[in-house]
Write a structure and sequence with these properties.
This protein has 113 residues and is α+β, with helices and mostly antiparallel strands. The chain has 2 domains: 42 residues; 65 residues, 2-Layer Sandwich (Alpha-Beta Plaits). It has 3 helices and 4 strands. It has a 4-stranded antiparallel sheet with strand order 2-3-1-4, covered by helices on one side. It starts with a helix and ends with a strand.
Length: 113
């Protein structure tokens, strides 16, 4: 009698476990594909943030930076509640780090994003 009950439980559980594993693998693959697509769309390179704070200081930092580094393009972004001054995007982290080495001499708080 015990053997019969174990056999019936085995018939019910074993196919369910296999199906669950296949479903998990498919959902994992689906998530990986979605994550890769998101990364390609959202991450378009690396930028250097020079300043994060109020608008008046951000404008002053932009003017000073343009005088010191006219070859590097910068932009001003507003994300509530602060203004950010950032360089344009670099394709690779190495390019951003090279530019950061030059910028750090004048702006020690600058960092790569």
């Amino acid at each position: 009698m015990k053997n019969r009950i174990l056999f019936i439980i085995g018939l019910i559980c074993i196919p369910t476990l296999g199906f669950s594993q296949i479903t998990t693998e498919k959902s994992l693959q689906t998530l990986l594909v979605k994550k890769r697509a998101y990364n390609q769309q959202s991450k378009q390179g690396f930028c250097i943030q020079l300043y994060n704070g109020n608008e008046k200081t951000a404008l002053k930092r932009m003017q000073d930076f343009k005088e010191l580094f006219p070859e590097i393009e910068i932009k001003r972004i507003y994300k509530v509640p602060e203004w950010k001054v950032q360089t344009i995007s670099y394709k690779t982290r190495i390019e951003a780090d090279r530019a950061l080495n030059k910028i750090k001499e004048e702006y020690p708080g600058a960092r790569v994003l």
